[in-house]
């Protein structure tokens, strides 16, 4: 189910941060994601693979690196809406 795949991809805060970084840059390598997000390359690679397997990301191989990019153009809008909802929830506590 696509909705369950999307929910799984967005469940972890670190994956949402990774997606924001990739959207901002256009495409990033595992090393670049790890550096920008402040996690190990191993952890970045695991998150990227999960989102690739879920159909959220794709990659371009440029030896020796894979450069990941977001497949879904509307994901940027969804993340922005998500942030607005979270902000509103915090205000209304």
UniProtKB/TrEMBL annotation:
Database matches in CDD domains: HTH_ARSR (cd00090)
InterPro entries per record: ArsR-like_HTH, AsnC-type_HTH_dom, HTH_ArsR_DNA-bd_dom, WH-like_DNA-bd_sf, WH_DNA-bd_sf
Short name of any one Pfam family annotated for the protein: HTH_20
Protein origin, superkingdom: Archaea
Residues covered by the HTH arsR-type domain: 1-90
Single annotated GO MF: DNA-binding transcription factor activity
Name this protein carries in UniProt: Helix-turn-helix domain
Species of the source: Geoglobus ahangari
Taxonomic classification: Archaea, Methanobacteriati, Methanobacteriota, Archaeoglobi, Archaeoglobales
